[in-house]
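Subgroup meeting minutes
Present: P.N., E.W., G.H.
Scribe: E.W.

1. P.N. recapped why we're keeping a running log of single-chain structure predictions: easier to compare across weeks, and new members can see raw inputs and outputs side by side.
2. G.H. added today's entry (227 aa).
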Amino acid sequence: MNFLTIGHRGVMGVEPENTLRSFVAAQEAGLDAIELDLHLSKDGALVVMHDTDVDRTTDGTGPIAEKTLAELRALDAGRGERVPVFEEVLEAVHTPLQAEIKDAQAARALAEVMNRRGLADRVEVSSFHDEAIAEIKPLVPGVRTALIASRYGTDIVDRAVQAGAETVCLNIRRLTLEIVERARKADLRIIGWVVNTQDQLRLVRAFGLDGATTDHPDIKRTGRFTA
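Output recorded in log:
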C-alpha cells in the first residue's frame, strides 16, 4: 500500500491555514489528500476554520458561531485570503479531502452536502469526538470515517471500533507499538500527525503507519525514500 501524505489545513507550514490558497498549494505539491476543519456560522454556513473563534487566524475577534457568513467573509484570513465555505474548497481542488467536524450539528450539515453532491468516495470525515463520527455514519451511506486522538491509550482502538471508524489519526508523540498492533488487529488504518521532520517521518515509517499528516509539502517527496 502506498504511504499517504495528507496536507494539514492545506500546507499550513507555508501558506495561511484553511484557505483556498493553502489547499491549491497542497494539490500542486502532489499531496495525496487535504485535511480541513469545519464549523457552522451563526446562519448555518459550513465554514472552513480550525478554532472556535476567529482571533488566531484572522484580523477579527470572537466566536465563529456568533458571526454570520457575511461577517466572516469580511475578515482577512491571511495574505488577503477570505474564510472559505466547504463547497468552495470542493470546486477549488479535486484532491481527496479529510474533513474534520467539531460536533454533531456540523456532522448533519456536512452530511447534507455530501449526499447532495455524492461525496462519499472523495471525502473522509474525521473528528476528535466519537459521537460526531457515530452521528454521520448512518446519514451518509458508504462514508469513511476517522477518529482523531491527541492524548490516548490503547482504549483508542475500542473507541474507534465502537464509533464505526475505519481509521485512527494519532498524535505521534504518544504512539506505541502496542497501540499500532492493536489497531492492526482491529483492521484499522493508522495515520500519524503532525509529521514535519525527517526524524518524525522515519518514526512513522518504522511503525509501518499508512500515512502522515504534515504542514510541509516536501514530506511527500522525501516520504517515498524513507523506510
